[in-house]
Write a sequence for this structure.
């Protein structure tokens, strides 16, 4: 589905008229609020499932331990595999490297271990003597949809964006509208759990360094309760 088709289904599910001036200006134009919800849903789906991946060449700068990665790969989420000349560079943590060798931050040689910190910083050890080309396979976030574009997540899960969009638009309503939105959010999370399980199995077979978050271990009820509490404008403190 295109963004406009997803938008039409979202508006139908939220009882909004897709032909009203506030909803859509012309055929194929997606209302800004709806487009923002679709983009938010697609980003969350990609983050929870790691369904989008890219392999690219990256330069490990000579005599450099820490560096940033998003300046070269702005959609980077997490590393899946790092290789140099066909050899695997293994993941590690700062604590592990500190325990193995206190001088790991200033050891020249061919990198054999790497560390990532958040969504941007990374470090390698040993540090290459010369600029070295590595092959990085990484999970990424989707490119933001502009206008009537085609979402990047798997097409069979485009209806999941409809579910998230309905939830997102219902947040501002409260009461029964919000409750219906929570149903749609749960359905969206069911979809991400199912596809995340598939990606996890595929990633294990590929021996990737990072696996998708296991949503089945997440206490979803606490999230729903928290959202219900924070988004109820009709609730108020008891009167004295």
């Amino acid at each position: 589905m295109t963004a406009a088709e997803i938008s039409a289904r979202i508006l139908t599910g939220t009882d909004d008229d897709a032909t009203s001036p506030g909803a859509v200006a012309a055929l194929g134009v997606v209302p800004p609020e709806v487009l923002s919800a679709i983009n938010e849903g697609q980003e969350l789906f990609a983050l929870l499932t790691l369904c989008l991946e890219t392999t690219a060449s990256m330069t490990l700068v000579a005599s450099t331990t820490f560096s940033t990665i998003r300046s070269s790969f702005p959609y980077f989420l997490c590393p899946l595999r790092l290789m140099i000349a066909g050899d695997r560079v293994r993941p590690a943590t700062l604590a592990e490297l500190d325990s193995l060798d206190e001088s790991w931050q200033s050891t020249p040689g061919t990198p054999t271990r790497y560390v990532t910190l958040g969504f941007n910083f990374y470090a390698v050890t040993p540090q290459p003597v010369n600029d070295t080309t590595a092959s990085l396979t990484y999970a990424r976030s989707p490119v933001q949809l502009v206008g009537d574009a085609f979402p990047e997540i798997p097409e069979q899960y485009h209806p999941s964006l409809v579910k998230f969009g309905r939830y997102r638009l219902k947040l501002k309503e409260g009461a029964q509208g919000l409750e219906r939105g929570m149903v749609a959010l749960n359905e969206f999370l069911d979809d991400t759990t199912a596809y995340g399980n598939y990606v996890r199995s595929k990633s294990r077979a590929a021996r990737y360094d990072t696996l998708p978050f296991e949503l089945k271990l997440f206490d979803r009820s606490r999230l729903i309760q928290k959202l219900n509490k924070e988004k109820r404008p009709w609730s108020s403190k008891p009167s004295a």
Residues 53-140 form one domain. Residues 21-27, 232-240 have pLDDT under 50 and may be disordered.
